[in-house]
Design brief:
The complex is a heterodimer of chains A (142) and B (153). Helix content of chain A is 21%, strand content 30%. With 142 residues, chain A is α+β, with helices and mostly antiparallel strands. Chain A has one domain: Roll (Thiol Ester Dehydrase, Chain A), CATH 3.10.129. A five-stranded antiparallel sheet of chain A has the order 1-3-4-5-2, covered by helices on one side. Helices cover 22% and strands 33% of the residues of chain B. A five-stranded antiparallel sheet of chain B has the order 1-3-4-5-2. Chain B is elongated. Chain B has a single domain, classed as Hotdog Thioesterase (Thiol Ester Dehydrase, Chain A, Roll). The chains are: A alpha+beta (142), B alpha+beta (153). At the A-B interface, helix 1, helix 2, helix 3 and strand 2 of A face helix 1 and strand 2 of B.
Chain lengths: 142, 153
């Protein structure tokens, strides 16, 4: 995907929705790649024997993998250098095979320290309509 | 098991991490990110960055370079299989690019429990600065610890 061109502050309205990102089903391969790529080697995400020992039915996705999807959504809308904040609560577990849709909408516009900022609600939702991440982002627009 | 609230205020030993292109490349492959600013120096510079850029949440991956990795688990004396990530927040002050030498300082700012002690919440704050001491980012994370005593009941 090419680098985003930022929308103008004046053109953005509260309630505007970002184009959602529909991701391929979470695979064990992706969790293995994220284990190596993130340096988070917690076996609970890649070793089913370990996950079962701690009471889980299977391995599950790193929360930070889904948070990276929130980041991808925001940077598909504005260049990364204009992102001022990204935060999330991890509200339910993302399992292997889950199909995650990442969505976002504008919740506010404000000025701070000489910058015009836009606040967003961003979230990951699974194929059953359950939110797995509920987050917020703040971007600076001209 | 009970967590010791006296650990509130504990500061971890700061460490430095060098931002490497190869690590960003693998991180991007894992998350499905294909924007060339994360892989091609020319594209990154043309887009106004100092160099190949670290994706927004790669900052957490830098923490894996801590030589004392796992310090929170040792501090709390809990097994890695009992923790979950509850929340993560970043405040960005400047883009982090390949070649940056980032100093990370993390501390415990709060510990509390819910559900009658079945779940414990450990709140940590983190600051990342570049080699010149300039603030790059701040982070705030919440680690959830499942109490093994509660799980047995």
């Amino acid at each position: 995907m090419a680098t985003a061109t930022a929308p103008k502050f004046a053109d953005v309205k509260v309630g505007d929705e970002l184009k959602p990102l529909v991701l391929p089903p979470i695979s064990r391969h992706q969790l293995a790649l994220y284990c190596g790529g993130s340096g988070d080697h917690n076996p609970i995400h890649v070793d089913i024997d370990f996950a079962k020992k701690f009471g889980f039915k299977d391995v599950f996705a790193h929360g930070m993998l889904s948070m990276a999807f929130l980041g991808r959504l925001v940077t598909s809308w504005v260049p990364q250098k204009q992102v001022r904040g990204l935060g999330t609560r991890f509200t339910s577990i993302t399992w292997v095979g889950d199909v995650i849709t990442v969505s976002g909408k504008v919740t506010g516009k404000r000025e701070k320290d000489g910058e015009t900022l836009v606040d967003l609600e961003v979230k990951c939702t699974n194929q059953n309509g359950q939110d797995t991440l509920q987050g917020t982002a703040t971007v600076a627009l001209n | 098991m009970e967590l010791d609230k006296k650990l509130i205020g504990h500061e971890f030993t700061p460490f430095t991490a060098t931002v490497e292109a190869g690590k960003i490349k693998l991180f991007c492959k894992a998350i499905g990110e294909e924007d060339p600013i994360y892989s091609d120096e020319g594209a990154a510079k043309a887009a106004g960055y100092r160099g190949i850029t670290a994706p927004l949440t790669f900052l957490r991956a830098l923490q894996a370079d801590d030589p004392n990795k796992g310090g929170l688990l040792r501090l709390l004396n809990v097994d890695i299989g009992l923790i979950l990530h509850g929340e993560q927040h970043f405040e960005y002050h400047a883009p982090v690019v390949v070649g940056d030498v980032v100093t990370c300082q993390e501390k415990v700012v709060d510990i509390y429990d819910k559900k009658g002690g079945a779940l414990w919440f450990v709140v940590q704050e983190m600051e990342m600065k570049d080699q010149a001491g300039k603030l790059l980012a701040k982070g705030r994370g919440v680690t959830v610890v499942r109490n093994p005593d509660a799980a047995k009941k």
